[in-house]
Design a protein that fits this description.
Layout: H1 2-16, E1 22-31, E2 34-46, E3 49-58, E4 67-77, E5 80-90, E6 96-101, E7 106-110, E8 116-119, E9 124-126, H2 130-133, E10 142-150, E11 153-169, E12 172-182, E13 188-194, E14 200-207, E15 213-222
Parallel strand pairs: 9-10
Antiparallel strand pairs: 1-2, 1-15, 2-3, 3-4, 4-5, 5-6, 6-7, 7-8, 10-11, 11-12, 12-13, 13-14, 14-15
Length: 224
């Protein structure tokens, strides 16, 4: 009886912490203040499954570099998103792929060569889906550990959960939670999640060791 009760609690919590069945978010990306690209996110979930696509279109001189399209699909569990397949397709480059086998606890990654089978770490997410993980399992105070996977391999990442400021974007103004990943040489990544919009990602800032700033800011959020 206790196990059934705990299961009902888990299912209820998951049902409460979920974005609309379809969400579209557009972003502008700048590099040191100069427009670099426009990004479109399309996230859909139904029947315990999700599908997510990200499309980059360069602006100005960067338009000549072609397009980037990343895709992730998988299941939705009591622990959030559980990716099954991930791909990263770019103009003039080999496609990255990652295929997850949760029963065997392995992931097969491939980029510029033969596929490699790796043990699946405990906090596995692909490089795209982890942005929407927090819409189903909101971040708690403290730290969040993520093993971010793409076709090149696995990146162990540790984020501090902080109170974000009132963030004003072209998509609106949001009270936020901020996840911060700090590295050596002043490198860092900061991800802002909108509290009143199901903890959807509204800004991503990456600062390189040379001070280069890549800033991805939401310009539109829609739930058709």
């Amino acid at each position: 009886m206790r196990n059934w009760f705990l299961l009902l609690i888990s299912v209820a919590a998951l049902a409460q912490a979920a974005p609309p069945a379809r969400v579209e978010i557009d972003y502008e990306v700048t590099r040191n203040g100069m427009a670099l690209a426009d990004i479109e996110h399309r996230f859909e979930h139904t029947g315990g499954a999700y599908q997510l696509t990200e499309t980059w279109r360069g602006r100005g001189l960067f338009y000549l570099r072609g397009k980037i399209r990343r895709e992730s699909r998988g299941a939705i569990t009591a622990h959030g998103l559980q990716p099954l397949e991930y791909s990263d397709k770019r103009t003039g480059r080999d496609t990255e792929r990652a295929t997850f086998d949760w029963n065997a606890k392995t992931v097969t990654v491939q980029y510029q060569g033969d596929p490699k089978i790796l043990p699946l770490p405990p906090h596995s997410h692909d490089r795209l889906a982890f942005f929407y993980q927090f819409a189903f399992v909101p971040p708690q105070a403290g730290q969040v550990a993520l093993d971010v996977i793409d076709g090149k391999g696995i990146s162990d990442q540790l984020y501090s959960v902080e109170n974000g400021e009132r963030l004003v974007t072209p998509a609106g103004a949001f009270d936020t939670v901020k996840l911060v990943r700090r590295k050596e040489n002043n490198e860092r990544a900061e991800l802002w999640l909108a509290r009143e919009r199901d903890f959807l990602p509204v800004r991503l800032l990456i600062v390189g060791k040379d001070g280069t700033r890549l800033d991805q800011v939401a310009t539109r959020i829609s739930s058709p």
